[in-house]
Amino acid sequence: MEWITRLMETLGSPGAGLAVALENVFPPVPSEVILPLAGFTAGQGKISLIAAVLWTTAGSVAGALVLYGLGAWLGLERMRRIADRLPFVTVSDVDKADEWFDKHGIKAVFAGRMVPVVRSLISIPAGVSGMPIAKFTLYTAAGSLVWNTALILAGYALGENHQLVDRYLGWVSTAVLVALAIAISWFVISRVTARRS
Hints:
Elements: H1 2-11, H2 13-25, H3 31-43, H4 49-85, H5 91-112, H6 118-121, H7 123-128, H8 133-158, H9 163-196
C-alpha cells in the first residue's frame, strides 16, 4: 500500500497505471486495492479523476497484452504437445478449449476483465487461440474501463473508507479461487475414475 501510494504521489496518474499493469502480470496487490486508492487520491485533489481512469485502463491493457503475448508464443500446437505429456490432460481437451474460445472469446475477454483472478488469466487463452490482437485490445480496454471506473469512483466516494472495496470484493476473489479449485479437483477425479473403469 505504501509503495503504491508513493508511486502515485511521485508519478501521479501514470503511477496508478503502472501499478495496475504490474498487477495484471504479477498480482502481488490486487486492483481491488489499487483502484479505490487511486479514487481516494483523486478525491484529495492529488491526481485527476479522469486521468486516473484513463491511465489505469491503459495499464490494464498493457499488462493484458504481455500475457496475451505469452499465450501467442505458446500457441495451439505447443499447447497440444504440452497436453500430450501431462497427466489427466489430453490433446482433445486443448482442442475443445480452443473451440469454446472461438465461440465465446469476445464475451470471455470483456467479462473476464471484471472478475478477480480471471482478469489476468483470460489473456493467455486469447493469445493461444489466436484471437486477433486488435479485437483482444478493444474488448480488454472496454471491460477494463468499466471495472476501473467503478472501483475508482467507489474509492472516490468512500474517501478514507476506500479499503471497504477490497474487504467486500475480497470475498469475490476467494469465491472464484474456491470455484477454480473445485473445478480442477472435479476434473482430476473424473479422469482418474475414467482410467480405472
